[in-house]
């Protein structure tokens, strides 16, 4: 188990370049399976989850050529479908959430796709019904082995159809889109997820020869084609990382510039942090956060009632930033209700923040009320274990703002989604050490 030792209470300063987006990378990498031609991808983050998916693709026989930092060529011209039946695949496939998205492309191109119950954050139930109902709608036969949690779909040629998704699942929509692009006829997906990463996937597929319209809306219309060709693609900056840096700057009263953020793809993110009282300035395509020397004050609603920050499918606020909102609120002036509607086990990490002296009431598994200290009392350093990726980064932000030296164990959880985080934090003045 790897550990971070953090000496908190220091102001940071400088600029930081966000990494390529983790959750976009997981979709885009699976799409390379849709063509025998070369797909060149840039701005791939060097993080555990993405590297696990790249190695899974390699085991599937995809030829991989690293052409520079974060840039790779992929060619799936000799896919080894036998690997899907191996014991090794049953282990590798479990290692991350994103591996589920190999199923759609494999089913569409090779007539079958299998996956063990995928891993990812343990943040509550994470069902896969939307994915498999979508494949079944396209004509696939479905089987599930309850004993070893192994899912499978098979079909000679998928057939386009109309479908109304039971929920706007992000990876579910991506998976069904990647199956439908090679189906016979037209597929309409209503209640589709439409976040920027999905838009990026659809745009890339269209460059490969797919015919997807409605990109960016919740109704995608896909005219199936017989084959797809190679293309080149660049990942957007990671919006969850950008939100994490905004929170870090406010909590440590630091002046930070977050470079090349792709503002137009940030949706509600800048405004939610502004509602917490944080000054988020736009400077071209950068975000500038001035040092909040006098703290920051949470806004109330017009009628004076307490602000609620809740998650919702895009264009709502992403659930992946609620843990960061929560930690940032612990030092604000005022109170906020954080409502995590999507996941039921994602707020339990607040007990660590309470140990550090934060004023939080966990109302139920989905809701926590935070009453900020307005920096009148600093958080106390402590020893903690990172339960999931976003709780992990939130605890790291808490430790950087706390007085004294904190220890965070199990930081593999943070490394799953944040590239060289300790090195990048040290470059802006943080006192953080990695201990193996
Ligand atoms: C690899 C990847 O891309 N992971 C992201 C992806 O996961 P993932 O695609 O697994 O998440 P889903 O969009 O399927 O759903 C997330 C959770 O929200 C619930 N739900 C979803 C839609 C809805 O309308 N109502 C609802 O309650 C689902 O039941 C589930 O519990 O999207 C999540 C939601 O943005 C993010 O937290 C994950 O970081
Ligand atoms: C929940 C997350 O990831 P995953 O879906 O890969 O577990 C996340 O990125 O916050």
From TrEMBL:
**What is the gene name?**
murA
Q: Which residues form the active site?
A: 121
**What function is annotated for this protein?**
Cell wall formation. Adds enolpyruvyl to UDP-N-acetylglucosamine.
Q: Main EC class of this protein?
A: transferase
Into which family does the record put it? Belongs to the EPSP synthase family. MurA subfamily.
User: Which Enzyme Commission number(s) are on file for it?
Assistant: 2.5.1.7
From which lineage does this chain's organism come? Bacteria, Pseudomonadati, Bacteroidota, Flavobacteriia, Flavobacteriales
> To which pathway does this protein belong?
Cell wall biogenesis; peptidoglycan biosynthesis
* Sites where the protein binds phosphoenolpyruvate: 22-23
Task: State the reactions this protein catalyses.
Answer: phosphoenolpyruvate + UDP-N-acetyl-alpha-D-glucosamine = UDP-N-acetyl-3-O-(1-carboxyvinyl)-alpha-D-glucosamine + phosphate
Q: Where does UDP-N-acetyl-alpha-D-glucosamine bind?
A: 97, 320, 342
- Subcellular location field: Cytoplasm
Q: Which residues form the Enolpyruvate transferase domain?
A: 7-425
Q: State the protein's name.
A: UDP-N-acetylglucosamine 1-carboxyvinyltransferase
